[in-house]
Amino acid sequence: MLTPAETLAHLITEKFVTAAPQAAAKALASLATHETLILISPLKAQTLITCFNHMEPCKAAAVLRRLPARQGAYVFSRLDVVQAARMMKEFSQPYREKLSAALKPEFVALLSQVLAYPAGSVGALMSTDFVSLKTDAKVADAIERLKTLPRKKLPAVCFVTAKDGQLKGVIRTAEMLFHTHGSALGSVMSEDYASLAPQDTLQQAALLFKQTQSPLLPVLDKEGKILGVLDARLPAPPAKPGLFKRLRTHFIKQK
Fold this sequence. Notes:
The protein has two domains: 4-116, MgtE N-terminal fold (Alpha Horseshoe), CATH 1.25.60; 125-231, CBS-domain (Roll). Helices cover 48% and strands 10% of the residues. It has 15 helices and five strands. The chain has a three-stranded mixed sheet with strand order 1-2-3. Strands 4-5 form a two-stranded antiparallel ribbon. The termini are far apart.
């Protein structure tokens, strides 16, 4: 008779995780940590990220800290920001320090404040998985960097920043091929862009996406530094209860 881990070994595939991430994460979370590690070891990085994003933070942290250090830092830095912040609280202090040393300082700083953002706000939903390049970087350098990314991870928009991280402009990835490869990004970028603040609501973001038709919007702090990005494929806001349901609730309360 097959053990639960042996049974799941035939189910936890790239296709299954992509199609049913919550079910896959729940199945993995039901196993011992060492069994979960065996099952996820063949999975691609993006699939691992999907699994961790849908696990309970405590279980996800227990599994991630047993991954090789470099792999663990790579996956962790690409998780949903809120999930990463919750997982960080579950790590022991020595591992937290070790992981933080392998991450970008700005990402570590963001994790310390992200849980303070209201649920459903831009700050709670933004991603830190974006491509930023300096104004003095050449178009050729940007193209070479983009070539290293998987096709599914190619961003529609790249962000151009100053040395201090302040956003200066944007450039669509597809447009880079039409610029002279020796040109500096600061000379070919567009300074006409819209941005969000982490405290903005999902409704405000949806309206801005509709107005700009942009696939990706940067999220900036008060100093204009880029904290993260928000994808145009926003989660649907919770539906308001219908009239019948509201009346029913009202009468129940009256009783």
